[in-house]
């Protein structure tokens, strides 16, 4: 099965990077809101980017603060959109889902975005995680 | 007494695809009991084997996390919105 790429505008991409850098040395996290098709598959188009608090305040794990999750869910509902993706940073490892990420991958329809900060230039990659199987998808960044 | 229960996308398949359903009960526990009777597939998502709130699920009554109120015994008034939010986490 082929999946739609994740399409971010450059300012959305930068918001993600900035939040990850701001959160360092802890992992940072956030949510992406977008549209889904009739099969509940994300189209890959992102309407809005929502930096969230990491409730774990940890260098090794993240949990999206449930108050932020509630707010983003409400906003998405009001706009007839859905949360389609979660992103988080790996501060010292590659931009690839960890065992914990795979085990706790909540929703098979979501796009899981990883931001590695181990090199001076942050690296952003995106994946689908379905029944434990990881498939990388393209990330396309376009000008605003 | 009717309240609105918001169902997260990942659980909607267990609730006939609905984003929100009517809930009946005076507490979150009663509402969930009624809910899992109607939608048995939700039970494993909401409650552990002892009938406690699953550790990976957050439940809000309007703007308040019920863990900081009275848990499943939190009272719910007519017109309230109960939001079910699965934990979004990883490492």
From TrEMBL, chain A:
Q: Tell me the keywords, alphabetical order.
A: Hydrolase, Metal-binding, Metalloprotease, Protease, Zinc
Under CDD domains, the record lists:
MPN_like
The biological process GO terms on file are:
proteolysis
Q: Which residues form the MPN domain?
A: 6-133
What the entry lists under Pfam families is as follows:
Prok-JAB
InterPro entries for the chain: JAB_dom_prok (IPR028090), JAMM/MPN+_dom (IPR000555), MPN (IPR037518), VirAsm_ModProt (IPR051929)
- Name the Gene Ontology molecular function terms of this record: metalloexopeptidase activity; zinc ion binding
Which SMART domains would you find in this protein's record?
Answer: JAB_MPN
- Protein name per the record: Unannotated protein
Species the sequence originates in: freshwater metagenome
């Amino acid at each position: 099965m082929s999946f739609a790429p994740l399409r971010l505008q450059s300012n959305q991409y930068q918001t993600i990077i900035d939040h990850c850098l701001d959160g360092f040395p802890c992992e940072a996290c956030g949510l992406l809101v977008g549209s889904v098709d009739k099969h509940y598959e994300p189209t890959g188009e992102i309407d809005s980017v929502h930096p969230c608090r990491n409730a774990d305040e940890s260098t090794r794990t993240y949990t999206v603060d449930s108050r932020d999750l509630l707010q983003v869910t409400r906003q998405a509902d009001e706009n007839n959109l859905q949360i389609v993706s979660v992103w988080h940073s790996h501060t010292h490892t590659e931009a690839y889902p960890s065992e914990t990420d795979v085990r706790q991958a909540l929703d098979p329809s979501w796009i899981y975005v990883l931001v590695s900060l181990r090199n001076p230039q942050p690296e952003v990659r995106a994946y689908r995680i379905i029944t434990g199987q990881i498939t990388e998808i393209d990330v396309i960044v376009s000008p605003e | 007494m009717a309240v609105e229960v918001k169902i997260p996308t990942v659980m909607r398949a267990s609730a006939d695809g609905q984003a929100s359903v009517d809930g009946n009960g005076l507490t979150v526990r009663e509402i969930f009991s009624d809910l899992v009777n109607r939608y048995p597939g939700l039970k494993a998502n909401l409650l552990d084997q002892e009938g406690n709130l699953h550790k990976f699920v957050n439940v809000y009554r309007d703007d308040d996390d019920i863990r900081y109120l009275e848990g499943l015994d939190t009272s719910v008034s007519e017109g309230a919105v109960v939001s079910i939010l699965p934990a979004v986490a990883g490492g």
